[in-house]
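Support reply, case 0932

Customer input (verbatim):
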Amino acid sequence: MSENAERVGEALRAKIGAEPIAGDWFDMTQERINDFADATLDHQFIHLDTEKAAATPFGGTIAHGFLTLSMLVKLSESIKDSADVDFSGLLMGVNYGMNKVRFINPVPSTSRIRATAQTIDVVVKGNAVDQTRNMIVEIEGQEKPALIAEWIGRLVFA
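Our regenerated output:
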């Protein structure tokens, strides 16, 4: 077991049950949605065709659910939930996976989103720490969130 991993694991365990911390707002643009459609070859009209999408219950184009999910990396950059943790000895952080993902509310193009994070589990595995955070992506001005996910990040230490 790595001393660095154990030290960080203990510090992160102390955060379990703390209030969620919000990050900065981020613009979800039609250009970003179009680029995601091109990258994934998902060109469904509800994402790209403003005229047809306006006639749906969504009232306009919406971001792909998987685009919103993939934005967790960017959205989490501004969340300072571990600013007081000493990460010395950290070699890398990797996406380990998700326990649950639910797409609750579509993200309209030209809206703003942000994520909140709350640590719910921490497990030390040798020279690594698996931190599971409950992530909620909010849509500015809407009561229901865009998505809720349990995201596992793995921190690998020297």
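We compared this against your earlier run and they match. Two observations from our side: The beta strands are 21-22, 26-28, 90-103, 111-125, 128-139, 147-157. The mean pLDDT is 97. Please reopen the case if you see a mismatch on your end.
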